[in-house]
Amino acid sequence: MKKVYLLAIGTLLATATMAQKAATKDNVGIGTSTPDQSAVLDIQSANKGLLIPRLTVDQRNNIASPANGLMIYQTNEKSGFYFYDGDVWKPMTGDEAKSVAVANVDNWSKTGDAGTSSSSNFLGTTDNQPLILKANSTRVAYFDNTSGFENIFLGKNSGIGFTNTPGAGYYNVGIGNFALSTASTGIGNTAIGYNALKINNNNGNTAVGGYSLETATTGGYNMGLGFGTLRYLIGGAGNAAVGANALSHTNGYSNMGLGFQAGMNKTGDGNIYLGPNAGAKGTFPGDGAVVSESYKLYISTNNTPNPLIKGDFLTGSLKINVKPQVGGGTSLGYLAIGDFDALTSPQMPTPVGYRLIVQDGVLTEKIKVALRSSGTDWADYVFDSDYKAKMMSLEEIEKFTIENKHLPNVPSAEEMILEGLDVAKTSKMFMEKIEELTLYLIELNKEVKALKAENGALKRK
């Protein structure tokens, strides 16, 4: 009505120059002798229009004391119809005009609004219908309280299964194209990423990353963080995967994979895989083949055939691989228990060739040392027929001990401190000395018997 009123005022200026005009007491007609009684000015024509004064911005601004409602057509800058509202010139077309047009109604402006109230001003619906946002006529967001309730979906075809199944599923969030797209009945699922949780219909799953838990059709309470995590899981529950493709191609319950492709291509329950490709090496008997195992622990990296740590929760076994790296690696292959760094030369005087270092002692009820060879690693050679000839005489041993303060072929105290005590070698050394002592005693016994016999013979004379 405001536009019509302004047009009418503007056209009054042209009434004196128009032909075929008629006037009554309250209205004027141009092109008609019977102007409409509801109009002050009624202009009719089959082939002509109404021409409003055309001014530039400067010309418009030079109008002295413009009347409230004065209208012109601006020819430069933001050209178009303008009217004077008593304070400024305002456009009648374009976005600014739309903002003006809706100023007096309860609509939202693209340029912002003031004086709103959170209790009465909002974007949404007041009837039992979802709120849908579209771009290029394609749905990109869906907020619903009817198909189930408290579901939120953002992205092309995200959660479309829920929207097509009224009353099914609730507390679900899907963000990303096709996230939760074919799911329809799940509860409490969160999917963020392209195709995340695409076809899941169970509860409590969390998938963050493209293709995460994509085909998890029935499993519940799984968590995947990273591209392709738990991607082909079918039926498993309670699994947790962090890292691209971790636990992908994996089925089972309560498995955990942390690291790139950790635990990939596995089936089983209660397994833990820590490190890039942990548990992957040596488990691919064929392309895409899946190996089944349960309740195992793998800590490894770089697809190594022997993990740093492998444990079996069922048998209680734990295997630790401390093999030194080859080809310039920094690891020395030590397993250290104590207050020192096992990745550098230990702070204890330990000879090369030992893997386990323990400070402050080890308490055990039994210890067993394996011998590699019975011929050289134990002292039975002392009783060989030619060994006696190699033995020192007691006089030579006495002289040696006076000079060196220890037995021959026995390390000194200084050497023991420097090199440590080798249980196997020390046991062999002790046995060698015991067996040598036995030989000395046998010889002494023979001499004693000979002396007794000689002494008895002398007494009988």
Protein described:
The chain is an alpha/beta fold. Among the domains are: 2-101, no CATH class; 379-460, no CATH class. It contains seven helices and 24 strands. The strands form five sheets. It has a 13-stranded mixed β-sheet with strand order 8-9-10-11-12-13-14-15-16-18-20-21-22, with no helix packed on it. It starts with a helix and ends with a helix. Mean pLDDT is 79; it is low at 12-19, 100-104, 282-290, 324-331 and 342-346.
Task: Summarize the model shown.
The chain is of the alpha/beta class and 461 residues long.
- Count of helix runs: 7
C-alpha Rg (nearest Å): 49 Å
Strand order of the largest sheet: 8-9-10-11-12-13-14-15-16-18-20-21-22
Largest sheet: 13 strands, mixed
Low-confidence stretches: 12-19, 100-104, 282-290, 324-331, 342-346
Percent range of helical residues? 10-25%
* Overall pLDDT confidence: 79
Q: In percent, how much strand structure appears in the residues? A: 15-25%
Shape: rod-shaped
Distance between the termini: 164 Å
| Number of E-type strands | 24
Oligomeric state of the chains in view: single chain
